[in-house]
Amino acid sequence: MSTANAKIRLSTLLYATKREEGGYNLIFYNGVYMGEVLKDDDGFYKYWPVQRAGYWDSPPLRAIADLLDHLNAEWDAQIQRNLGA
To answer: What is the domain partition of the chain in residue ranges?
Structure first.
């Protein structure tokens, strides 16, 4: 996952753009805005979808899950170390 460009390609169907105020905007390949990934009060990034009619199938949702796992890995590891797990 390269962050060198303004658009971060997450899969063949999905890309993200970094927000100036933090987090990421998620855009489907056809330009449809899917929502945003923001850091929550607990320190973990979460996906905040745009509420609309229709559905999303598993490939773009899997790419979002992979992004969340990547963004949260360091914070989760730190918590686990602090808890002695």
So the answer is: 7-83
And the tokens for 77? 């590891």
What is the pTM for the complete model shown? 0.85
Question: Side chain identity at 66, as an amino acid letter?
Answer: D
Tens-place pLDDT, residues 35-78? 999 999 999 999 999 988 889 999 999 999 999 999 999 999 99
Q: How many whole angstroms separate alpha carbon 33 and alpha carbon 24?
A: 11
Is the separation of the CB atoms in 36 and 26 below 8 Å?
yes
**Which amino acid, residue 84?**
G
Residue 47 CA to residue 78 CA, distance in Å, equals 21
SS3 content of the chain, % helix, strand, coil (to 5): 30, 30, 40
Report the distance separating Cα 14 and Cα 7, nearest Å. 10
CA 6, 8, 14: angle at the middle one, nearest 5? 125
